[in-house]
Amino acid sequence: MEISAQWIRGGTSKCWVFDEADIAASGYSADELLPRLFGSPDARQIDGVGGATSTTSKAMIVSQG
Fold first, then answer.
1. Are the beta carbons of 47 and 58 closer than 8 angstroms?
2. Which of 30, 29, 57, 31 lies closest to 43 in space, CA to CA?
3. CA atoms in the 13 A half-sphere facing the CB of 49
4. Is the keyword Isomerase in the record (predicted)?
5. Average pLDDT in the 10-14 region?
6. What mean pLDDT value characterizes the chain?
7. In the chain, where the domains are located
8. Are 55 and 15 in contact (CB under 8 A)?
């Protein structure tokens, strides 16, 4: 799975930033894509970039609409 994104960090927070068009072009829905990037199905997100809990795993999807 490959998709263009920015990984932004500020203080103790970090967030994926995606272009909506890139998600649509990937062939995956955001509901399929985001959990995998954060490390699901592992509950502690050890095989992705998640923060170990769902409350510390952030993503933003932007569009030009």
1. no
2. 57
3. 14
4. yes
5. 80
6. 80
7. 20-62
8. no
Tokens of 7: 């990984």
Residue 2 tokens read as 């490959």
Contacts of 25 by beta carbon, 8 Å cutoff, 6+ apart: none
Interstrand relation of 6-10 and 13-19 (parallel, antiparallel or unpaired): antiparallel
Contacts of 48 (CB under 8 A, 6+ apart): 36, 37, 38, 39, 40, 42
pLDDT digits (tens, 9 = 90+) for 13-49: 788 899 999 999 999 899 888 888 777 676 665 665 6
